[in-house]
Amino acid sequence: MPEIIAASLVGGRLRRLSVVPLLSSVGCPYSCDFCVDWSNPYVLFPPEQLEADLQYLARNWPGVMVTYHDPNFGVKFDQVLGIVEEIPKEKRSPYIIESSLSILRGAKLPRLRDTKCLFIAPGVESWNNYSNKAGVGATVGKAKLTQVVEHFREIRQYVPGLQANFLFGTDADQGEEPVELTKEFMRAVPFVWPTINIPTPFGNTPLYDRALANGQILQSMPFSFYYTPYLVTTMPHYPPLEYYDKLIDLYSTMTSNVMLKGRFGKESTLGFSVLNALRTLAMRQDLAALRLLRRMLATDPEFLAFHEGRTRSLPEFYHRRYEQKLGRYANLISRAERTPELEKPASSLASTAPGGEVADRLTAVIRSRAADGFPR
Fold first, then answer.
1. CA-CA distance, 352 to 41, in Å (whole number)?
2. In this structure, is residue 72 part of a structural domain?
3. Domain around 279
4. Which of 29, 36, 80, 337 has its CA at a distance of 20 to 30 angstroms from the CA of residue 319?
5. Mean pLDDT by 10 residues, the chain (376 residues)
């Protein structure tokens, strides 16, 4: 509580933007190759722990915003929502979750509305992959788009704030189709905020193992650039210039005045319209960063050679950015020390599927720690 008070309250008092982070579970039932939770079995926290946390908030901070940091909220939907429903309506906290479209169906949606779920961020990921997570079976391409659009429209009847998470540049992405389908999605459901992520090879993931084995990782790129808008691998099907052209196309559509106007349509509440308008302005800064990187690729032969994997010499551009990040501490890390030490592919992890025995051991650890007061 002392840390939450320091981070979320102003002068010891709740404000409109005060947020309390909670966990109801850890791990994930899916095995998406890019995710650091790919091999972590889903485990529900002891229900009495979540109940105690929510009862505490109801007594002391009724109505404070809760953000669930579960990798995949609601896998044990009835158990978790049953606990939330025990809190009196007038004292329930509005909440934000990240979940999967495959979970968000049928009678579950009214229960989310009635327990004050305000915002959901499901992962669509790719139009040609990860379809089980989107709840469309083996459907891909245009047919997947049609089903996903209708699903978001259904969810919107019950939950006012929606976000769709995408990856662009997966092994399944080729040509114009993934770009055009994502743009069509944006236009069809302007009340859904889209996030476009660059696949990043985080350690101990199958994506990392595969990219390292195939020589795709730009091995001298410092870890501090492992996030959008920076490209830290060579793409399977897009040269770097073409890749940034397509990212710029996606971001240009996302931040266009036409989309901005659409976000104030009748399908969106005023509050979320304003929020998405502010996010649009912020994403225009990311669009400017993408355009800068694209310009560097087009005008600097050494920069292009690095991103094509023809040289390991880190461009001066990244050294300067690295030093800007560190500010007056830049001289504490030499240029040689900025080069990551990449581990060998985690073959032992790749051969270990999530199983009941692992889940049972993890559950036992969580329950024993909960008995000692962790992490309340």
1. 11
2. no
3. 163-170+193-344
4. 36
5. 79 77 93 90 93 93 92 94 94 94 94 96 91 84 95 96 94 94 96 95 93 95 95 96 97 94 83 87 94 98 97 96 95 93 68 45 46 39
